[in-house]
Amino acid sequence: MEGIKDKVAIVGMGCTKFGELWDKSVEDLLVEAAYEAFEDAGIGPKDIQAAWLGTVFSGLTAISLAPLRLQYIPITRVENMCATGSEALRAASYAVAAGVFDLVLAIGVEKLKDQGITGVAGRPGDVGNSTIGTPGIAPGYSAPASFAHLATRYFHDNKLDPDEGKRVLAQIAVKNHHNGSLNPKAHFQNEITVEQAVNAPIVAWPLGLFDSCGVSDGAAAAIVTRADMAKNFRSDPLYIKALAISVGARQGTMRQDYDFAHIEENRRGSAMAYREAGITEPRKEISMAEVHDCFTIHELLVYEDLGFSPIGRAPEDVKAGTFTLEGDLPVNTDGGLKCFGHPLGASGLRMMYEIYKQFQGKAGPRQIKNPRLGLTHNLGGQSGSAICSCFIVGNEKG
Amino acid sequence: MVGIVSKGIHIPIYRLSRDDIAKMWGGRSASGEKAVASYDEDSLTMAVAAAMDCMKQSEQQMDGLFFATTTSPYREKQVATTIATAADLPRVSRTADFTSSLRAATAAINSAIDAVKSGSAKNILVTAADIRMAAANSKREQEFGDGAVALMIGSDNVIASIDGSYSIFDEIYDVWRTNEDDVVRSGDDRFANTKGYLPVMQEAISGLMNKHGLKPADFAKVVYYAPDAKNHASLAKSLGFDPKAQVQDPLYSIVGNTGVASSLMMLVAALDEAKPGDKILLASYGNGSDAFVLSVTENITKIKDGPKVADRLARKLPLSYEKYIGWRNLMPIEGVRLPERTAPSIPALFRERRGVLALYGVKCKQCGTPQYPVTRICAVCQAKDDFEDYKFSDKRGKLFTYAIDRLALTPSPPGINGVIDFDDGGRILCDITDCDIKEVKIGLPMEMTFRKIYESSGITSYYWKGRPVL
C-alpha cells in the first residue's frame, strides 16, 4: 500500500464568494469557480481530461456539470454528505495517481438557499438511509441537535458547567468571526463578542445561533495534475500528502461504549492521514488546519480528535489562543464553516482553497507565516455515525 | 369462570385547566382540569400504552385484541392490528375494532366474554380509548378528557368474575357525529337526559338487578358512565345508591369524560381499592346500555403491584390553551420551516413492521449484545446472521445524552431528543416525549412509549419514543 503522498498536485483553484446568493444559479456558481481555477492554472476547459462533481442536493448526476459544456469527457458525480467536496478531490486525485489522466477537475457546488427554508432539508437520522426504503420513522431531530448531543456529553464528562462550556465554545465562534471579517469571500464578515455568542438565541440547547455555521450557497474547484508535471503549470503547486476518509457504520448509535464526547471517525481518519503523510507530531508539524466547524462544539472535539490538544484539554488551548491567526496552530483562518459558510458540496474544496492561497502568500490580512503542511478536515453525517475526511497537503514535493 | 384477568390504564400527562378554557372564551368554569392527549398521541397510541400496562401485570398469553373507540384514526383499516403488532400479540389472535358508539367498549367486553365462554379464545385484551373533540367554548369542551383502558378478559386467575350482564338498545339522538364532523354534535341536553340517559340507565341497571336477584345495597361499588357530573349524581340518587360509600368517583373533575374509556377507567380505579368478595356494578351508555355484575376474587390480592390510577394521576404537566390549539390543529400556527415529510414507503413499512411497531432488535448470539435496529452483521463483533430476536419496547434505560431542539419537526417546540442506554444493553437514538425541559438530564430513567410521529398522504406513522419513567 503506497498511498497518495507526493503523487499528485493542485495547480489551480477557484472559489466563489459564499453566502445567500439569491441572484445566482448553480450554473453561475459552477462557471465562476471552474473558470477561476482554469485561469489560475493557465489552462482552458479543453485541457481537462476528466471531472468529478461533488454535490449533495444541487444535482443528481454527472450531467449536473453540463453548465461547463465540457466536450464528452468522463464525468462522475460524487456524494459523501459534508465531505462531498473533499470526496470529489480524492476521486480526481486517485485517477491521476493511477496514471489514467494527467489533468483533471474536481468541483463542488451547493445552493442550499434554493430550498426556501432555514437550515438544511433532510434529517440527520436519514443520512445513509435509502430515500425510497426508509419507513420514515427516524427521529425528527435537527442537525444542531445531533451536535448538541455531543456538547451535552462533553460538558458532562469534562465537568464543564454549561455556562462555562458555552463560553469556551463562544471563543471559537469569536475567532472564526474575526477570521471571516478579514475575508472578502466569506458569507459572514462581522466580528462578534463572547457575550453576543453566549446570549444568542438557542438553536438546540446547549448550542446557540453563533455556535452554528452559515447555511450558504457557493462553489469551489481544483485542477489536479501529476506531481512530476506540476511545475509545468506553476512554481508554487500544492502537493497532496494524504487523502484519508473514515466512514462509521452507526456503531455510536448502537453500542453503549461510544461516549458522544469524541468522534471516532475523526480519530481513525486523522490517524490514517498522519500515517500516509508520515506525520508523527501533528501539533508541531501541521502549520494550519481548515476543520469542520459546522458547530463550535465540533471544532472543539476536532482539536482533541486530530491530536492538536490532549484529550479533555482543548478548552485550555482555546483559552490560550492556540488556534487563532497568531497562535501556534491557526485553525480556520478563512472564517471556517462558521463564517465562510457551508455549501455542503463545496466546503472541502473551499478549505483547500484557503490553504492553497495561504501557501502562496496570497491570504492578505489573514496571512500566516511560512506554512509547510496544511490539513483539511470534513465531517458528514451525525454524531454516532459519521464520514470523516482528513487531507494533508504541503508546498514541497518529498 | 370468565372475568377480568388484569387491568391497564393510560392517562395522558397533560392537564388543561377548566379555568383556562373559561378564561379563553369568557365563559363559566366547571372547575378542575381535564387530561389532554399529547400532540403525539391518538386513540391508537393510548390504547397501546394501556395494553402494555395491562400486560405488565399478567403472565397470561393472549389470543385476541379488541379495540373500542369513537375516534379511530382510520375509517377503513383495522386499528386493533396495529395495537396487536405494537403490543406483540401472537400471530394467531382474534382482532376487531368496535366503533361508532360510546358503548363500543362494553360491546367489546361482551364479545370477549362470549368468545372465552365458548372456548374459542383464552384471553382477549379489550382496549378502549378516546380523544373526542367538542366545539370550542362549548360545555363539552370542558367536560371531555382523553385516556385509555385495557382489560384482559379470560377464565384463569380472574381478579373479578363477570357474573352476568344485561343490555338494552335505545334509538335516540343525544350526541352524534357524522363522517364529516370534527366535533361532537348534540341536541337539547334536557331532552337527552330526561328521555335518554336517565331512563335508559335506570332501566338497564334495574333490569340487571332483577335478572340476578340483587338490590342496590348488595354492591360494594357502582361504576357507570354519565355525560357529566350532574347526571352522574342524579342517577345514583334515583336508584338509591349511597353516593359516598357506593358510587365510584367518575374522575370527571381531574380527568374528564373519556368517552368509551370512561366507565372502564372508573372500574380500574374501583378495582385498585377492591377487596375479595366485593360486588361491583358496571354500566355503560350510548344508544342503550350494557350493564354487568362483577365479583372480586381472592386473586385481587395476588396481582402484581402495578401503579394505581391514583399514582398515574400524580404525574402531570400543565398545558396552556394556546398550546392546545396548536396540538389539535384548531388554527394554523407558525412552526419550524422545513419541508413536509413525505409518507413512508408502504413496502418498507410492511417489511420492517416488527422493528418499527414492536421495537424488535436483535441480540447477538456470539457476543451477547442487544442491538437496535435489526442488523445482519453484529455492530460489535461482526458475526453474520447469528442473532435471536430481542424486544426493546418493554425495556427500561437511562438518558445518556440529549438536546433541546428548537429546529425539531414537532408541533410542540422545543423537541427533546437523545440517546437512551437500556439497562440490559443496547442503545437507541430517539425523540423524548412527556418530558418537561426543566427535568431533562443525563441519567434520567427512561421507558419506551408508542407515539404518532407524523401524518402524510393519509398514512399516520407510528414509532416509539422515550419518556421519563412514570
Distinctive features:
heterodimer, A: about 400 residues, alpha/beta, Peroxisomal Thiolase, Chain A, domain 1, nine-stranded mixed sheet, two-stranded antiparallel sheet, 13 helices, about 35% helix, globular, B: about 475 residues, alpha+beta, 2 domains, five-stranded antiparallel sheet, 12 helices, about 25% helix, about 30% strand
Your description of this structure?
The complex is a heterodimer of chains A (398) and B (470). Chain A is globular, with a radius of gyration of 19 Å. In chain A, helix 4 crosses helix 10. Chain A has 13 helices and 11 strands. Chain A has 398 residues and is α/β, with parallel strands linked by helices. In chain A, strands 3-2-4-7-1-8-11-10-9 form a 9-stranded mixed beta sheet. Chain A has a two-stranded antiparallel sheet with strand order 5-6. The model of chain A has no long low-confidence stretch (mean pLDDT 95). By secondary structure, chain B is of the alpha+beta class. Chain B folds into 2 domains: 3-327, Peroxisomal Thiolase, Chain A, domain 1 (3-Layer(aba) Sandwich); 346-468, no CATH class. Chain B is built from 12 helices and 22 strands. Chain B has a 9-stranded mixed beta sheet with strand order 5-4-6-7-1-8-13-12-11, sandwiched between helices. A 5-stranded antiparallel beta sheet of chain B has the order 20-19-18-21-22. In chain B, helix 2 crosses helix 3 and helix 6 crosses helix 7 (229-239). Chain B is globular and about 70 Å long. At the A-B interface, helix 3, strand 5 and helix 7 of A face strand 18, strand 19, strand 20, strand 21 and strand 22 of B.
